[in-house]
Design goal:
Elements lengths: L1 E2 L6 E11 L4 H14 E10 L10 E5 L6 H10 L9 E4 L4 E3 L14 E3 L17 E4 H6 L11 H8 L1 H6 L7 H7 E2 L10 E3 L4 H5 L1 H8 L12 H8 L5 H17 L1
Parallel strand pairs: 2-3, 2-5, 3-4, 9-10
Antiparallel strand pairs: 1-2, 5-8, 6-10, 7-8
Length: 259
């Protein structure tokens, strides 16, 4: 990790920024762009079947077969991501999370093989963590390809809970919860005090309602909003134009339920 004395810009030459998706591709590109605005990575890779041309010159498109389900996404990360990462670590992001403040980077993050926002619902010590914004070592990616690692969905639960003991027996290190909460906020932690975040319910707060609304209108898959629909609706309803936006959210919700 290098921070330029003149620009104070974070440089992460040992980290590849990655995302994989067949839905919400434009929103995913924005998440990658937001991350690239905060730090320089060894490479930035978007794995997708969509025919897109990024505006940011630092984003490389890697064509893949369509990821038709969440299960297919898990299968790709567990079975194929390691084949494309040449650096010691990769940072996995999704459309609803990205690097938020490079000033919160801690070199200790790279001392671990897996780190993601902690899961407050678990109290057994296997509570790290969320894969939607997660730092993974190449060693961990390769371990997930082992026949001993039984692939299923969701992939972050398999890594952080189902197979964590086996992964640790192979010498892989999981970040402690305290460090994970400095790395990312999801169901626990404060996104404004962490390096990044994951979760659509955080977006109106950390990005502003107007910017979130611009992103929302590009979505072609809104399933991740369903669980926290009430929270998002309340935030969007605030401010100028809030009533119209809230009504649009409700109308989209009805359409999604009918589907």
């Amino acid at each position: 990790m290098v921070v330029s004395a003149s620009t104070q810009r974070l440089s992460l030459p040992d980290v590849t920024l990655c995302a994989a998706t067949s839905v919400n591709v434009q929103a995913t590109l924005r998440a990658l762009e937001a991350s690239l605005a905060q730090a320089d990575f060894a490479a930035c890779l978007l794995f997708t079947d969509a025919d897109v041309r990024p505006h940011h010159p630092g984003i490389t498109i890697i064509p893949i077969q369509r990821l038709a389900s969440a299960q297919a996404y898990s299968g790709f990360l567990l079975g194929r991501l390691a084949d494309h990462v040449e650096t010691s670590h990769c940072l996995v992001v999704q459309w609803d999370g990205h690097v938020l403040d490079a000033r919160h980077w801690d070199p200790a993050f790279l001392e671990h093989d897996y780190i993601g926002a902690s899961w407050p619902q678990f109290s057994d010590g296997h509570d790290v963590g969320n894969g939607g914004f997660s730092l993974r070592s190449r060693r961990l990616l390769q371990a997930c390809q082992s026949p001993r690692f039984q692939q299923a969905h969701p992939e972050d639960v398999l890594i952080g809970r189902t197979h964590r003991a086996w992964l640790e027996s192979q010498g892989l290190r999981f970040a402690p919860r305290s460090l994970a909460d400095c790395f990312s906020a999801e169901r626990a932690g404060n996104p404004l005090a962490s390096f990044g975040y994951h979760g659509v319910w955080h977006m109106p707060r950390v990005l502003g309602v107007d910017r979130f609304w611009e992103i929302y209108r590009t979505l072609d898959g809104r399933s991740t909003i369903r669980h926290d629909f009430g929270t998002v609706l309340k935030q969007v309803a605030q401010g100028e134009g809030g009533v119209g936006r809230a009504l649009q959210l409700l109308a989209d919700r009805v359409v999604d339920v009918i589907k």
